[in-house]
Write a structure and sequence with these properties.
Elements (H helix, E strand, L loop, with lengths): L10 H6 L5 H12 L3 H6 L7 H15 L4 H5 L1 E4 L2 E4 L12 H10 L5 E5 L5 H9 L4 E6 L2 H13 L4 E5 L11 E6 L21 H4 L7 H9 L4 E10 L5 H10 L3 E7 L5 E7 L2
Parallel strand pairs: 3-4, 3-6, 4-5, 6-7
Antiparallel strand pairs: 1-2, 7-9, 8-9
Helix pairs in contact: 2-4, 6-7
Length: 275
């Protein structure tokens, strides 16, 4: 699909003849012109000059070629906060907000939180922003991801300790009141990895290059030594993995093992308490 827009095209005409998904197109047009959604509507008779037309066409073409909108505009909202998104990190998704909600409900006053594999920092920053009394630590093995997470923490005024770490390596000997994670959980070879936005996201943050459960096993095995007694471990996982994750938690001796459903009614987060 080749997209071309000519100078003189009005914003109204552009909206009446959507070239892409209407929501995606609106976001990209507003981004290209630096205007709000309201301005897009009220300036319907505004005619594009040649530079504006070319700029909009270029952005729409990138989306038509499959590139995620969040990477094109460099931003995605999560838990009511703006987050920088680059190809170095996963795009924050509404499903993951469930993990933040559950964490905030279980975090004691002035509690210590550990976010494993933080990526953009969305989970850690959201928790720290809403609970400034908490001491939030976030880990990632990717230095590029940590750079993005650092900027997102600064952007949202959140105090987060960010550490370069291969899982628990950088927090040996420390203890936390809550551990959360959205780890790589897509099995190697899963067809979804070659579809949609996932084609553009960092593969190491999506798949464990194994059965989809290896990262979850590592987190479950290491958490008891780093959780205060009776504290929660909460993990996001795939749409069909809840039973397997609950079995892993139960086998490792966690109590109150359970799963929680996202807005689509899918069991998206599972967790348990340390003994």
């Amino acid at each position: 699909m080749s997209i071309a827009i000519t100078a003189g095209t009005t914003l109204g005409a552009l909206q009446r003849a959507p070239l892409l998904d209407p929501v995606d197109q609106r976001i990209l047009v507003c981004h290209a012109l630096g205007i709000s959604r309201t301005a897009l509507i009220t300036q319907s008779e505004r005619a594009l000059n040649a530079q504006e037309a070319a700029g909009i066409a270029a952005l729409l073409q990138r989306r038509a070629d499959g590139e995620p909108v969040a990477y094109i505009v460099g931003q995605r909202e999560f838990f009511g906060l703006p987050f920088e998104t680059t190809p170095a990190v996963l795009i924050p998704r509404p499903d993951t907000e469930l993990l933040v909600e559950l964490a905030l409900e279980r975090l004691p006053p002035r509690g210590k939180v550990l976010d494993m594999g933080t990526g953009s920092g969305a989970i850690a920053v959201a928790i720290a922003h809403h609970r400034p009394d908490a001491a939030v630590t976030a880990l990632d093995v990717s230095t590029e991801a940590l750079a993005v997470a650092t900027r997102n923490a600064q952007r949202n005024g959140a105090s987060v300790r960010l550490l370069h770490s291969d899982w628990y390596g950088a927090v040996a000997g420390e203890q936390f009141d809550l551990i959360v994670s959205n780890p790589p959980y897509i099995a190697d070879g899963d067809r979804h990895l070659s579809e949609g936005d996932l084609r553009f996201e960092p593969s190491g943050a999506l798949t464990d290059f194994a059965d989809g459960l290896s990262a979850l096993r590592t987190i479950i095995a290491g958490a008891p030594a780093r959780l205060a007694p009776g504290s929660w471990l909460l993990m996001e996982h795939g749409y069909d993995q809840s039973a397997a994750v609950r079995a892993l938690l139960s086998a490792a001796g966690y109590t109150e093992v359970q799963s929680w459903q996202d807005l689509a009614g899918i069991e998206r987060v599972s967790g348990g308490r340390s003994r």
